[in-house]
Design brief:
The structure is a homodimer.
Chain A lengths: L1 E9 L4 H18 L3 E9 L5 E8 L2 H8 L2 H6 L7 E12 L6
Antiparallel strand pairs in A: 1-3, 1-4, 2-3
């Protein structure tokens, strides 16, 4: 299993638009991408500019296919202009699990 | 629902000991704490010093009870000496969900 935490810092005036776009991305990912354990959008309870994707994938193969999907390639790249500073991406493995 | 991401930066020589201690914390939390949706320990695939707790709680009440538990009070506070720099804690709500 792979978990990914994508912590994004969205410009204040673009938060609503960003959420609107990402709701479509979440829906398509959950519907179309095999091996997707979790793909959810969460907003920090103190700082609404911090919006984080919590992802879970069964394998590297499932993640690679997601990142090669049409919805990923169409929706994600343009979003970088929405961010106040670069996103923080951490790719995790359960403690003690070997790579699969 | 509440999601919490606790990103910790563990001193290199204490990683194994830290993981050993936290495995007990994870087991007790999953077993004893009602309303626990997820409580898992994950290690960054590039930087083994970054070890992150991904948590999910049904409500603020469930989270409060967890932080008031014996295992939390006994295990968590001493761990701060294991860290190279302060942990990053983000408390999240699903986008669009009102507080419960």
């Amino acid at each position: 299993m792979i978990r990914i935490i994508v912590k994004q810092f969205v410009k204040p005036d673009l938060i609503d638009r960003y959420i609107e776009i990402m709701k479509e991305m979440v829906a398509k990912t959950r519907e179309l991408d095999e091996g997707c354990i979790e793909y959810g959008l969460f907003q920090d309870s103190k700082d609404p500019q911090i919006i984080t994707l919590i992802e879970g994938w069964e394998s590297q193969h499932a993640l690679d296919k997601h990142m090669d999907s049409t919805h990923f390639k169409e929706i994600i790249p343009p979003l970088s202009t929405f961010f106040e500073k670069p996103e923080e991406v951490n790719i995790y493995r359960p403690v003690g699990e070997k790579r699969k």
